[in-house]
Fold this protein.
Amino acid sequence: MRRIFYFTICMMFLLPMAATPALAGEVLDGVVATVNHRPIFRSDWDEAVCFELFMQRKPVSEVTEADRVTALQRLIDRQLLTAQMNGAHSMEPSEDDLRNYTAKLRSQVSGGEDDQSWRRLLASYGLTEDVLKDHLRTELQVMNFVEVRLRPTVRVQPEEIEAYYRNQLLPDLQQAGGKIISFNDVEPRIRELLTQQHMDELLDAWLHNLRQQAEIRTSVPIPALGAPAAQSGASGTH
């Protein structure tokens, strides 16, 4: 990922309070983690946090340390999955896919249809249209790769679909006072829902194995990696 630096509202909240003050115009950056000797820079991390907050529509002023740790873990996981692609450029989304996905995002925010308002919103998160596009391209590429890799391995049994309909959907509809929907009408949607759930489980297991096999060094404690933060500023190892 490019090392991109933005002195914006987002960065003012995201840079550690204990950081040494810099002269005007000076950029402070450093390696916060390595994945199989490939670095993740603080600027990458800060930008990823901005992207995560934007996608969640969470105000920058409400960012928490947990948000930052989650963003770093996702960066690490993304590097692990990207390495598995072996340069599979066929998984990259088309320009039409990116435009359609961006249009969908814009339709979900107030004023998103107006170009100037849209750019102001992105800027409030320390993002530009090009940076957003880069993140979306990577996210969609990874999603395409996971889809192709995992979906063929999932088998949802008919009795599993019936059990979900009987034990989950019907009670929920009755509790909400909604109209009862026939099994045949919702069977395809339940099948897809369960398929996605199984894919999530497989992805979690796959990422766990990849983390176990990788050499990951980080100066930040990430519970999911099972490794503490490094001591005295040195990098921790998992």
